[in-house]
Task: structure prediction
Amino acid sequence: MGMVDLVLSTLDDQGVLTLTFNRPDTLNAWTGAMGRRYFDLLAEAERNPDVRAVVVTGAGRGFCSGADFKTLNAIQSGSYDEVPDPRPNTFPTTIGKPIIAAVNGACAGLGMVHALVCDLVFTAEEAKWTTAFARRGLIAEYGLSWVLPRIMGQQRAMDVLLSGRVFTGREACELGLANRAVPGERLLREAQEYAGELAAHSSPASMAIIKRQVWHDWDATLEESAKTATQEMLASFGRPDFAEGVASFLERRPPNFPPLP
Result:
């Protein structure tokens, strides 16, 4: 399989880009090459004014089953010699366009990391989730010890991290890890429809700034967050998005927001 085929890319006429991890024979286990392709496509989406929202899913029965075992074996044996991508696994949080994970199946370890660094998560009710790390002799990798308590609370985070137990997409939603849990056959359609709503009705500039505020403010004090928000609000008054947002509301018509530059 060529690098281009590792992550499939389709853009619809609403501006919704769907990226599909495409190693179904391994439940889309993560490799360095697949990661580079995924991040390259996100970087391209950032530059493409036609892209207004991104949906990420997996081919076949899995979203991403975690790190590829061939990679883990190579690391264990000392034979791993692949040059790592310099972009961190949190790279999706730096992209100015909303990213929705559509977790269609197995979501384990590193796969769970990549679901949770998306901005929203939709999951199939029957999808299987697990951190898995403790059951492999590993630790909470790639910032999950920071992300999980903020999303679901410390006690729940301890549960899924220490036990490494498998739980369903329905429970993932109940725990706060997903926005919606739906039957698998409806998952991708619902995620794409939601992304289409964002593309049609929300200002690209507003979404980019809100996304930066939310991810950045996890490290900010309330005072710092309020100060930044005031600066951003004053700047927004001078953007065409504000004029169009008000005009479309008063004229009772869909907005025609400009793309991100």
The chain is about 45% helix and 15% strand.
